[in-house]
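Q: Sequence in, structure out?
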Amino acid sequence: QVRLVESGGGLVLPGGSLRLSCAASERIFDSYAMGWFRQAPGKEREFVAAISWDGVNTNYADSVKGRFAISRRSAESTVYLQMNSLKPEDTAVYFCAARPVASANAGTYPYWGQGTQVTVSS
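A: Exactly. Output:
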C-alpha cells in the first residue's frame, strides 16, 4: 500500500518561512519522483515543485522560484518543501504526490497525500 503523509503546515506571517514534509512508503520512495502541488479555495490544483527519484533534477513553478526549495532524503523516505519569503497568495492546501517520472501535470500522479494547510496572513 502506498502512503504519503504531509506535515508542517500552519499559520505564518508574510515574509516568514515554513518547511513541509511528506513521508512516503519505503516501497516507492527510492524509485519515484515526488511533486508538491497546492490548491487555494475556489481554484484548481496547481504545480509547485518536483524532484526526480535520485534528487538530481528539480523543477519549480515560476511563482515560487527563488523562494521555495524541494529536497529529499532517502534515509528518511521523506521529501521536503522549504518555503521562504511567504506571501498571502501562497495560502493553500499543499499536497505531495508521487509518480515514476517527475511532472508538472497533477493529473498524471497516481499517488497523493491528504494535504496540509498553509495560511500566510498578518
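The radius of gyration is 13 Å.
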